[in-house]
Amino acid sequence: MGEQREAGDFPYRSELLASLSALILLWESPGLQREILTASGEPIDQPAHQALRHLLAGQPLRAGELAQAMGTGPSNISKIVKRLEAGGLVARETDPDDTRSTRITLTEAGTAAARHIYDLGDDMIAQVLSRWSSRDIARYTELTKRFTTDAIAAAEEMRRNGLTRRTD
């Protein structure tokens, strides 16, 4: 899978940001994602895997919404959705808010495949936390939820302000 990065490899002033960078690169690495997909038993590629995760978290979605969530373009999303449709994992339905548009939704098989992928994630985090006390897990979870909420709010504020660097 290649050399894993440690927090110390990242020259951030923030030790937290360096640690998060190492974690994100590990969990989003193509090698690990390939291993997760192999373990899932689902005959899909990484972009299809990502689409299933997004759909289970927020379906139904228009193709443009899915493309934005995945950071890709309409042409690529069209190909991904066609592969998932051919595999019986997603279906298109008319958008009741705009009958010219369609929404993508998971089929029963697609929901099962996406849930299986989430189950693998749950198993992985359970292994990571297997030697932690329930108190430590609860506290870490509480702080992580708070951090995530604050990070989302800060990102929205930065976007409104043109992503400029703070000087204070």
UniProtKB/TrEMBL annotation:
<dbReference type="GO" id="GO:0003700">
    <property type="term" value="F:DNA-binding transcription factor activity"/>
</dbReference>
<protein>
    <submittedName>
        <fullName>MarR family transcriptional regulator</fullName>
    </submittedName>
</protein>
<dbReference type="InterPro" id="IPR039422">
    <property type="entry name" value="MarR/SlyA-like"/>
</dbReference>
<dbReference type="InterPro" id="IPR036390">
    <property type="entry name" value="WH_DNA-bd_sf"/>
</dbReference>
<dbReference type="InterPro" id="IPR011991">
    <property type="entry name" value="ArsR-like_HTH"/>
</dbReference>
<dbReference type="InterPro" id="IPR000835">
    <property type="entry name" value="HTH_MarR-typ"/>
</dbReference>
<feature type="domain" description="HTH marR-type">
    <location>
        <begin position="13"/>
        <end position="149"/>
    </location>
</feature>
<dbReference type="InterPro" id="IPR036388">
    <property type="entry name" value="WH-like_DNA-bd_sf"/>
</dbReference>
<dbReference type="Pfam" id="PF12802">
    <property type="entry name" value="MarR_2"/>
</dbReference>
<dbReference type="GO" id="GO:0006950">
    <property type="term" value="P:response to stress"/>
</dbReference>
